[in-house]
Amino acid sequence: MSSPVRILAVGSPAGDDRAGWHVADLLRRQGIKSIETIQNVDDLLGHLSPDQRVILIDACCSGAAIGSTFRLQWPDPQIADRGGVSSHGIDIPYVLKLAEALGRLPRETILYAIEIDSSEPQAAMSPAVIAAAEETAARIIEELSLAGSA
């Protein structure tokens, strides 16, 4: 992945759903500047452009162990076939399919997803998700360094 890379962290202030935002905070502390936090996946489309390389960071509920992390490159059949409307609005695969149809899909899209537990308002992040966020931030820094984008 070559420069520039835009990092988009999706999340909310509810419990483990802060995982993406926590990764963003950790990356900012390491001097990474091209990071934006997004609260609603519905707003993601407005942040995408075909001339970009993008790293998306979000929480997920796939049934894996809490704190599991996944690195996927779009399109990936593990997530491409799952897109649709959820109880929280639209999800990332749906937005990426829509971006492609509208000619807004970034030329490269990497998704880092962290398996979460509770997304209850006022809940603290679980230790496993905090550790996974730290691991994810380190992996992103390494990826950016190897590509000369840090």
Protein architecture, described:
- The chain has 150 residues and is α/β, with parallel strands linked by helices.
- Helix content is 30%, strand content 23%.
- The chain contains four helices and seven strands, in the order βαβββαββαβα.
- The chain has helices spanning 19-29, 77-80, 92-101, 127-146, and strands at 5-10, 35-38, 53-60, 69-73, 85-86, 89-90, 108-115.
- The strands form two sheets. It has a five-stranded mixed sheet, covered by helices on one side. The protein has a two-stranded antiparallel ribbon with strand order 5-6.
- A hairpin with a 2-residue loop joins β5 (85-86) and β6 (89-90).
- α1 crosses α4 (127-146).
- The protein is globular, with a radius of gyration of 14 Å.
- The model is unreliable at 83-88 (pLDDT under 50).
Provide a short characterization of the protein structure.
Helices cover about 30% and strands about 25% of the residues.
Major β-sheet, in short? 5 strands, mixed
Number of discrete helical segments: 4
Count of extended strands: 7
Mean pLDDT: 88
Major sheet strand order = 2-1-3-7-4
Note the gap between the termini: 11 Å
- Principal-axis shape equals globular
How much of the sequence lies in strands comes to 15-25%
The unreliable regions are: 83-88
Structural class: alpha/beta
The share of residues in helices is 25-40%
What's the order of the H and E elements?
Answer: EHEEEHEEHEH
Radius of gyration: 14 Å
